[in-house]
Amino acid sequence: MEKSDLNKIKLFVLDMDGTIYLGDKILPGAIEFVKTAREKGKQVVFFTNNASKNPNNYVEKLERMGFGASRSDVVTAGDVTIEYLKRHRSGEPVYLVGTPALEESFKSAGIELSENATIVVSSFDTTLTYEKLVIACDLIRNGADFYCTHPDFNCPTENGFIPDSGAIVALITASTGIEPKYFGKPHKETADMISELFGVDFSETAIVGDRLYTDIALGKNNGLMSVLVLSGETKIEDVNESNAPDIILNGIGEIIQYL
Question: How far apart (Å, rounded) are the C-alpha atoms in residues 49 and 74?
Fold first, then answer.
């Protein structure tokens, strides 16, 4: 696939952490890309696996940084997980290993949160306690289904990496011997939800991100164009024949010349 093929894309799905910003630092060309894409009639959606914050928190951050975003422009792995639970496990109580912001999202969607649950959902929990881990592991050992919002091991920040959802899951799995069903990138539920929400075929959609095993794998697994930016977690030496994206760029601003 050629870089010139970027001009044919109708929907750009943008990762956030490591792709358009790092913490409170806007990455070069990010705002200019979003503005230019919209001027060219392209749709832009901001998708993050980071479910530690409420989607409205991301809207506020994007607005504050100058990207311009509404709630309909932002999708998180938490949204995908909630949508799955509503469609397939409606009415069942959930034990959530997540932040108060994620708890708020679940409750707003009508999902009951309980310590006597048939489902455990683990996420990127910056308020994690040992007690939460004990409850989650006990429920899973006693037969509760185990789900996880997203598989990311580390979250990039301006000061380096911090443990993410996948690292927390690894601890629960080590204790229980049970692997979860994952949502978020790179899983099909995410690709299907994006296509449904924005009405654009996979063949006219590009995922732009900095992680091979989430962002790029979402594209490779589901027929979306995959665009790797080297502004976050992945370095060029990490790329090999099996995980190679369709296009590699130093940063998101390089897309502008192809629109």
Answer: 11
